[in-house]
Specification:
This protein has about 400 residues and is an alpha/beta fold. Helix content is about 40%, strand content about 15%. A 7-stranded mixed β-sheet has the order 1-9-8-5-4-2-3, with helices on both faces. It has a 3-stranded antiparallel β-sheet with strand order 12-13-14. A two-stranded antiparallel ribbon has the order 6-7.
Length: about 400
């Protein structure tokens, strides 16, 4: 049996007529950049997430960069984030001339550890230096929100902006002390990615920035068109960060199905949880299943399982064993950012962030998507059991 890590063709088959019809509408209108489809998507995702404004942009990576630009982050500044995430989070900071400052993760969730953040902020305030911390970027990794109440409290006390990297967490609920909030609409602004593999994915690159701040939204709209105030008049230096109408049209179709797809992801995650436990793989410590921190909080979308990531012994051997039996798996991420060659100048060393480094050695994403069937999941678990039974 073949079980791919993700099957986009299976999703497309379920909504083919809707997608094809919408794409043909855009082709007939011949309006391909920004325009009514983008404006409608911005309103719909903002409303879905509980934010006042949505600003569609060219990618999730560009969403991070334009958010930092709009907040005035650049040379002479520092931004705290996690080393256990996709490169774009810290990459956007560095590209603007600011300094990434890393904070280790919570072992249970893989997200930023608030206690670690507190220690980092205290150390930065004490040591000073050329760059001053001006923002924090928590990442809602794998589809579960970071501890935003704690992070926001620390940021507020220090006068810092909070930019949520919600690229993997659209629709995820967070039980804030201020009421249930959705990922991307909790901090000063939040960013989404619509890369095809995301829970809400387009047919190419795309992204969005959410905010409740009208002034910040206006700045973001200006920056995404090179800083243009009126046609060929530029007040600030921006960039080409526009979202294509074709992507927006496809995403509008998919958005209508997103809640159902999220529910199917949670159902399949629960199936893995039960099957792995019944196989004895959890009890003997071979596999540690993901901890859904907010389960039982009374909220629905406590985890949207962009990935079903387990911790395993002998990870690399297991990945090869699975591949040999037709099962695709992925490693998100094999090397934390502080050890990447391009960040060597920051001065970090091995063992600086032991929890992130340990996660990078152990994590493995098993196949999970709404169209995954029970027989496929049972096969995955049986192969896992066979691997560990062989010793």
């Amino acid at each position: 049996m073949n079980v791919p890590p993700l099957d986009l063709r299976a999703q497309y088959r379920t909504i083919k007529d809707e997608i094809d019809r919408k794409v043909l509408e855009v082709l007939a209108a011949q309006g391909f950049v920004l325009g009514p489809e983008v404006e409608s998507l911005e309103k719909e995702i903002a409303a879905y997430s509980g934010a006042r404004f949505g600003i569609g942009v060219s990618s999730g990576s560009d969403a991070l960069m334009i958010a930092l630009m709009a907040l005035g982050i650049g040379r002479g500044d520092a931004v705290v984030t996690t080393p256990f995430t996709f490169f774009a989070t810290a990459g956007a900071v560095s590209r603007l001339g600011a300094r990434p400052v890393f904070c280790d993760i919570d072992e249970r969730t893989f997200n930023m550890d608030p206690a670690g953040l507190e220690a980092v902020l205290a150390r930065e305030a004490k040591t000073g230096g050329r760059e001053k911390v001006r923002a924090v970027i928590p990442v809602h990794l794998y589809g579960q929100c970071a501890d935003m109440d704690s992070i926001l409290g620390l940021a507020e006390a220090a006068g810092l902006f909070v930019i949520e990297d919600a690229a993997q967490a659209i629709g995820t609920d967070y039980p804030s002390v201020r009421g249930v909030r959705k990922a991307g609409a909790i901090g000063h602004c939040g960013v989404f990615s619509f890369y095809p593999t995301k829970n809400l994915g387009g047919a190419g690159d795309g992204g969005m920035v959410l905010t409740d701040d009208a002034k910040l939204a206006a700045t973001l709209r200006t920056l995404r068109v090179h800083g243009e105030r009126a046609r060929y008049y530029y007040d600030v230096l921006g960039g080409n960060f526009r979202l294509d109408a074709l992507q927006a049209a496809i995403l509008r179709v998919k958005l209508k199905h997103l809640d159902r797809w999220q529910e199917l992801r949670r159902e399949r995650a629960a199936t893995y949880d039960r099957a792995l436990a019944e196989a004895g793989l959890v009890e003997d410590g071979s596999v540690l299943i993901p901890e859904a921190l907010y389960r039982g909080s009374g909220i629905k979308d406590f985890h949207t399982y962009h990935q079903y990531v387990v911790r395993v012994r002998r990870r690399d051997e297991l990945k090869e064993f699975l591949a040999g039996r037709g099962i695709g798996s992925m490693i998100y991420y094999p090397m934390p950012l502080h050890l990447q060659k391009c960040f060597a100048g920051l001065g970090y060393r091995e063992n600086d962030f032991p929890r992130s480094e340990k996660a990078a050695r152990e994590v493995l994403a098993l196949p999970l998507y709404p169209e995954l069937i029970r027989d496929q999941q049972d096969y995955v678990v049986s192969v896992l059991k066979d691997f560990y039974r062989r010793g």
